[in-house]
User: Fold this.
Amino acid sequence: MEHHRSQSKIKDYFGDASLLFIDGSLLDHELIRMVFRRYEMDNNLEFVSSAETGLDIIKRQNVKAVFVNQVLPGLDGFGFLREMRKRGIRIPAIMMMLTGNEETALRALREGAHDCLTKGVRYFDSLPLILDRALARHELELERAERDNLIIESQRHWIAMFDAITDFIFMTDAEGTIVKANRALSAAFGKLPQDIIGMKCHELFGIDPEESCIPNKSGQPHTEERSINDEIYLISSFPLDYGDKPLTIYIMKNISEMKRLKDQLYHSDKLASLGLLVSGVAHEINNPLTGITAYTEILRMKFPDRDMEKELRKILESADRCKKIVANLLTFSRQKTPSRTLESINDIIERAIELRIYWLRSSDIEIVRDYDVVKSVFVDSQQIQQVILNILLNAEQAISELNRNDGTIVFSTRLDNAGQKVIVGISDNGPGIPKDIIPRIFDPFFTTKPVGSGTGLGLSISHGIITEHGGSITVESAEGEGTTFTIELPLPSRTEGNHVANDYADFFDGEKAVGSEKQTGGARGTKEP
Ligand SMILES: Nc1ncnc2c1ncn2[C@@H]1O[C@H](COP(=O)(O)OP(=O)(O)OP(=O)(O)O)[C@@H](O)[C@H]1O
Ligand SMILES: [Mg+2]
Assistant:
């Protein structure tokens, strides 16, 4: 029964494939054939007399097991086993030894043989049994390899999963030594995960040992916010009972950007409610102001005497100034969407300069033009002109504070590297802005100017306008080194261009200069006439 089972199993295993014998002794071939005839395997047998030919046959035919003699001409049995391994040939191999020597047998097994046998008297009778055993061992080996593969594969999945997460994930032992870490953590310090294993948490972050990864003595999961190296992290720790070693898993999420956005949102929220309040107040003030102006005019007409004229004029001037402030407040709080047209940015700048030309000349301020953009922007030109004017006025006022006669304001326009934005620069060589007030200059009502000369709305209005145009406005300044405002405006998309009018098509295609000429190089340093 047992015999039959192994018989059919062997036959099934081979099917049409070959069982190869590498053996120089021709005499044995017939006997081997006789033994395997009982297994109906005469047609599966293949005999060769050298290891080299054997390897060649394995390469070209479907060989599913091999018996190899220890002693062969050329490459011997061990050499053959080694070569099989080297070529990644995974079929059961059985070594036939001349004498039953344990050492030789062990060596054969080490070289990859699945079994050995000694060529004694009637050794061929035992061949099928040994083959059966080798096949069973081979099967076991395959199963184990498959299991190992599954484990390796699942390990890879886990590693890939942790490495794909951009938060820092790591595990420390009771002493705070990192025992595992994901790629995000090591990459943040320009290292590989294996390089940070063994480091203390505080060493890695370069912080005080006392401040190290939050100690979690409660033995409970814990989350807290911590500021490390100017970044804000949300750190969660999870104690892990791992055998007898207490471990802690940490997840650190950098929430600096999230915080910034939240602050920004809060700020714009504050601005929006402020705007609402301001517009209400401004409207209320407008009516009595009109009354003040009108009645003062009436008084002037009724009493055209010289004595009162001066005072009445003062009232009118003050009322006028109030009106201007109210107008500014209304612009600040206005929620109107801009009405846009295609316009050359250089032209808009020129128009703003034009409005101040008299003052600029009389204060001896030089205007330098460094225009390098001829593409048009899709903007509300009135609004953009107001922005330029606000910045120009600030620059004038800043320069005049210094009482210098070499005041210069440089206007530049260029495209960004990607060719998608227009960048306008406005630089002055005034006193610059102290570092601590830079973050506040875009706030509404922030001013350093004396009461009566500034409302602190210029930049806040400008910021609103540029943001509404999908652009950005930034400042760079250092005390004593002048100030540069940079405005970025997106170039119009094609649809925006078509939407306006087809006549404008060439604005997008060609380098058509609009209005003023391209002025660079030689034109630099041109002083206003
Ligand atoms: N070019 C500059 N050089 C130095 N300081 C500047 C410059 N531009 C702006 N500032 C600073 O920013 C503050 C805010 O400017 P902003 O234009 O918003 O208000 P303002 O000029 O004070 O008043 P308003 O524009 O309403 O008349 C100014 O008071 C000034 O301190
Ligand atoms: Mg101003």
